[in-house]
Design goal:
By secondary structure, this protein is of the alpha/beta class. It folds into 2 domains: about 5-125 and about 305-335, Medium-chain alcohol dehydrogenases, catalytic domain (Quinone Oxidoreductase, Chain A, domain 1), CATH 3.90.180.10; about 130-280, Rossmann fold (3-Layer(aba) Sandwich). About 25% of the residues lie in helices and about 25% in strands. The protein has 9 helices and 15 strands. It has helices at about 50-55, 130-140, 160-170, 180-190, 205-210, 225-230, 265-270, 285-295, 315-320, and strands at about 5-10, 20-30, 35-45, 75-80, 90-95, 100-105, 110, 150, 175-180, 195, 215-220, 235-245, 270-275, 305-310, 330-335. The strands form 3 sheets. Strands 3, 4, 5, 6, 7, 14 and 15 form a 7-stranded mixed sheet that branches. The radius of gyration is 20 Å and the shape is globular. The two termini are about 20 Å apart. It binds NADP nicotinamide-adenine-dinucleotide phosphate (NAP). NADP nicotinamide-adenine-dinucleotide phosphate (NAP) binds near residues 133 and 179.
């Protein structure tokens, strides 16, 4: 291959993004300079945080401007190295791939993938951003303990599937919220004790009350929106609310999130609500990965991936997340995985 295919942002979305917001272009394959490597992408990760990156609104990280290559992480193989720490054939993971076939990246920003810890895709799922998020957000921000009832939105997704299983490992009861009975059946098969289909229950607040009769001790909020409201009306004493994501706001990202107010619910329950961002925990990724890998190897951590085929499918794969169409961690295979 001599050309580098790359998706650039064609326009900022107004409301729900669609395929017209990106454009596929080609560019020459870049050459690495001293300290850099050229990487062939094997898998790209598409993640809900990308909705924020394509918004012109201020966010916790710089966004993508119109005409720029779409940001995103991945796993790939080094095809040319000008850095002592990495050799041709090494597998690496980082957030710096972008939606393209090849990228040049500085070696210090790359994580060398150890394929014995888990398959390449695992480094973007249970050993990567979603798994690490579930780990730190539930154990530290959520401070889960035995006997807690943990309610998880987007429970069958990349983060949610790991949250429920860690909750069970710590002796808690895990309750899944998802958009379909098929997803909830799978959540139960990996350990969730109960499930709520937020699309079909007649009253979400009552459904949460029924599934969590002693109240919600930890609410792991991946979505915001109506699921958040129902959870807030069912808090147990000293509940912890982990604000992990706001995907239910994907179609109105630029607008203020106006809804019910829960100040009294927080006061009465003496609850704590805290926002979570994985990048506040980078110094402990290796230790967390080792524990997640050990749980997976001894059969206590299950995971599900949803893999789209080909770089052309990347925007469509991203949009699946915003329409509840992914089932498990959404990835895109860009080239043949030589470890398979
Ligand atoms: N703060 C951090 O550091 C951090 C890091 C990673 C991820 N996150 C957040 O964690 C959340 C989950 O991310 P993920 O990568 O694991 O994605 P994911 O759960 O694999 O995929 C997104 C899921 O969101 C649900 N969803 C979409 N629109 C919805 C709506 N309107 N209402 C309710 N649910 C909706 C869908 O599940 P259903 O089929 O159940 O609707 C969909 O499958 C996201 O909000 C993401 O931003 C935060």
């Amino acid at each position: 291959m001599t050309e580098n295919r790359q998706w650039v942002l064609a326009s900022h979305p107004t409301g729900m993004p669609d395929l017209a917001n990106w454009r596929l272009e080609t560019a020459p394959i870049p050459d690495p300079e001293d300290g850099e490597v050229l990487i062939r992408a094997l898998y790209l990760s598409v993640d809900p945080y990308m909705r924020g990156r394509i918004s012109p609104q201020k966010n916790y990280a710089a966004g993508v401007s119109v005409g720029e290559v779409m940001q995103g992480g991945g796993v790939g193989v080094v095809v040319k190295s000008r850095a002592a720490a990495l050799q041709e054939g090494d597998f690496v993971e980082s957030f710096g791939f972008g939606w393209r076939d090849y990228s040049v990246q500085p070696a210090p920003g790359l994580t060398k993938v150890d394929p014995t810890l888990g398959p390449l895709t695992a480094w973007l799922s249970y050993l990567g951003l979603p798994g690490l998020t579930a780990y730190f957000a539930l154990l530290e921000t959520g401070a889960v303990k035995a006997g807690d009832t943990v309610l998880v939105s987007a429970a069958s997704g990349a983060v949610g599937q790991i949250v429920g299983q860690i909750a069970k490992l710590k002796g808690a009861r895990a309750v899944a919220v998802a958009s379909s009975d098929e997803k909830l059946t799978w959540c139960r098969s990996i350990g969730y004790d109960a499930g709520i289909n937020y699309r079909t229950v007649p009253d979400l607040t009552e459904a949460v009350a029924e599934a969590c009769p002693d109240g919600v001790d930890v609410f792991f909020d991946n979505t915001a929106g109506p699921i958040h409201d129902a959870a807030m009306k069912n808090l147990a004493l000293f509940a912890r609310i982990v604000i992990c994501g706001t995907i239910a706001l994907a179609d109105r990202f630029e607008e203020p999130d106006i809804g019910e107010r829960f100040i009294r619910a927080i006061l009465v329950a003496r609850a704590k609500m805290q926002g979570f961002l994985l990048f506040d925990h980078t110094d402990r990724f290796d230790a967390a990965r080792a524990e997640l890998a050990a749980w997976e190897k001894d059969g206590r951590l299950h995971h599900r991936e949803d893999i789209a085929e080909g770089l052309e499918q990347t925007p469509a794969a991203f949009l699946k997340l915003l329409h509840s169409e992914n089932f498990g961690k959404q990835l895109v295979r860009i080239a043949h995985d030589p470890t398979l």
